[in-house]
Amino acid sequence: xxxxxxxxxxxxxxxxxxxxxxxxxxxxxxxxxxxxxxxxxxxxxxxxxxxxxxxxxxxxxxxxxxxxxxxxxxxxxxxxxxxxxxxxxxxxxxxxxxxxxxxxxxxxxxxxxxxxxxxxxxxxxxxxxxxxxxxxxxxxxxxxxxxxxxxxxxxxxxxxxxxxxxxxxxxxxxxxxxxxxxxxxxx
Length: 187
Fold this sequence. Notes:
The chain has helices spanning 4-22, 46-56, 59-75, 94-98, 100-111, 118-146, 153-162, 165-170, 172-181; strands at 24-30, 36-44. It is mainly alpha-helical and 187 residues long. Helix 1 (4-22) runs antiparallel to helix 2, helix 2 (46-56) runs parallel beside helix 5 and helix 2 (46-56) packs parallel to helix 9 (172-181). The chain is globular, with a radius of gyration of 18 Å.
């Protein structure tokens, strides 16, 4: 049964997942002129926020809220990166959405330890991001096999997975510093 605390945690995590999936990540880099050039990274805040929420809340709450997010994106609202609806199941991106479940479960193993260090968080984060991408790549390979487009496998793996991994790994460092400031992990 859901008590008030669980309902509040569920609402908070759903809102964080919704908002984080819509916010792109921008960085500023120096330019030859006297101003900073703003560059958009090809990822959003969804994976770092899910990693943070898994440490802050229970994995049961996060799995419930992520399931609600997927359900709403598939049947009601265009919440995903390229829209929504049941047709989204046939896109290469959907495998990466499914891969978030094992990522949540793996990061939750870290919570069983009494003291979490920054190194452990980053190590578990790296492994969980690779788990997410392995599942995404398997899903996208199956979709391409079903539609007899096997010649596009390497291109789509590069576009949807390999191009994003460095940026997602880079986002582990700000997440770890945020968790240190929240006193959830130790340096």
